[in-house]
Amino acid sequence: MRRIPTPLDLRALQAFVAVCETGSMTAAARRLGLSQSAVSQSIAALEREQGAGLFDRDSRPPRPNRAGLALLELASPLLDHAKRVSARIGDASLALALPLRLGCVDSFAATVGPELIRAMSGPARQIALWSGLTPGLSAQMHAREVDVVVCTQTALNDTRIVEVPLFSEAFVAVVSRGWLEEREALSHDASAWRALADELPLIRYTARSVIGQQVDRFARHLGIDSPRRYEFDATDPLLSLVSAKLGFAISTPLCLWQARHYLDEIAVLPLPEGRLARREFFVLHRQGEWNDFVDETVALTRRVLDHLIRPALMRAVPTLPDHALI
Fold it and tell me: Are residues 188 and 71 in the same domain?
């Protein structure tokens, strides 16, 4: 009758590898923080369970024999896998005690973020939320300084990080409402943005932000050749200059909602559609981690956009295109 193999004792396997690597029971015991007797007993038990000797007892220091070499070749992957399993269990246990660290780009944190925290944070799960620019958030994800990230354009080179599409929004031209009212005929002209770009300078987001880089590419594509005169990291100061008729901007619905106290003073003109005409949002998380939270985030974000932000924006900015936020 064929003998059923005995499962390997991982502690005994660890002792076996230590003896092979250090060359003696004494050195292996020192590395593992055990007595020499304990290491010797582990090796003996391992040989007994596997029904074969693992060392050439005639050599000094002891060297693994053919069976020992075969086991040594397989041992490292087994021990590495055991460590990963232990770390994963530790991460899961830790997740119950520590807040989930959620990093978001500013426009998302300031608009959808509060609804997310209100709906998903509670006694069983606390969320620590902070915002930043996409490049910084991506770096924090790679460094494990955050657990989940909501960001825009990404360039991931890590197959362990999953990118889940969230939503997209169109770039729109933003101008002072007073400026547009003085040129009433432009309000219903599909190419009104061209007259706008011919007359006013472009007020930009800084090129160190992803949205700034995207707007620059789109502006070049549209043939907008405006000197770099005013540049801002945030939407608030950008719209303050727009409302003062000092220029126009290219922004997005979520950014406008973030700075909604300016909505009475600005007007929106649609821009031509195309590959460069939209900003995409994604949720990033590590493979096998926080899957349920990410699924909840996607579903809740859709509800907030469909039932809260989009209707309010359409009421405040009637010229906003229907496809501006999808």
Answer: no
45, 68, 95 - which closes a domain: 95
**Edge-to-edge strand order for the sheet containing 202-205?**
230-232, 202-205, 248-251, 172-176, 266-270
Nearest to 147 by CA among 133, 129, 164: 129
DSSP state of 318: T
**What gap in Å lies between CA 294 and CA 183, rounded to an integer?**
46
pLDDT digits 0-9 by tens, 90-103: 555 545 556 889 99
Q: Is residue 184 part of a domain?
A: yes
Length of the chain: 326
Contact 39, 32 (CB under 8 A): yes
Q: Are 45 and 55 in contact (CB under 8 A)?
A: no
Count: domains in the chain: 2
Interior angle at CA 211, CA 320 and CA 318, nearest 5: 10
Q: Which domain holds residue 213?
A: 102-326
| pLDDT bracket for residue 88 (50, 70, 90) | low
Task: Please state whether beta strands 172-176 and 161-170 pair in parallel, antiparallel, or not at all (unpaired).
Answer: unpaired
How much of the chain is in helix, strand and coil states, percent to nearest 5?
55, 20, 30
pLDDT at 2: 47
Picking from 115, 101, 129, 136, the residue whose alpha carbon sits closest to that of residue 257 is 115
DSSP reduced 3-state for 28: helix
Query: What are 167-189's pLDDT values in tens digits?
Result: 999 999 999 998 888 877 665 66
